[in-house]
């Protein structure tokens, strides 16, 4: 099995240069997380874009969907910003024969205290074990596309 990891930006890959500066979406962090966790599975990394999810457009979602349709891999992990992750998951629904898991983080992976490493781990296991479909892996749970939302006040995802 070859896993495709598509990165589109979001907090998970954000870099803050100092307390007074704006953030910037940096290089994908998944390879660093995998290296630190001694992950040896076969994967390919495809950095597709570097956007905060609030800046994502329908055209961006079309590009993500077309990419998922065109690649040979049937197991796809997508790192994405949390604010519109549920929208992108719904835009990917119905892709035949593909298991797609989206994940992200409430704090950048580069921070000492972050949910990114845990979320990437859960998503990596989920994409290998779940049947074809589109899912979100956040906060230790797996949610089917169209049945999840971000609860901003509680800083977590929940079923709807």
Automatic annotation (TrEMBL):
Residues 3-155 form the L-asparaginase N-terminal domain. The active site is at residue 11. It holds the Pfam family Asparaginase. GO terms for molecular function: asparaginase activity. PANTHER family: 60 KDA LYSOPHOSPHOLIPASE, L-ASPARAGINASE. This is Asparaginase. The lineage of its organism: Bacteria, Pseudomonadati, Verrucomicrobiota, Verrucomicrobiia, Verrucomicrobiales.
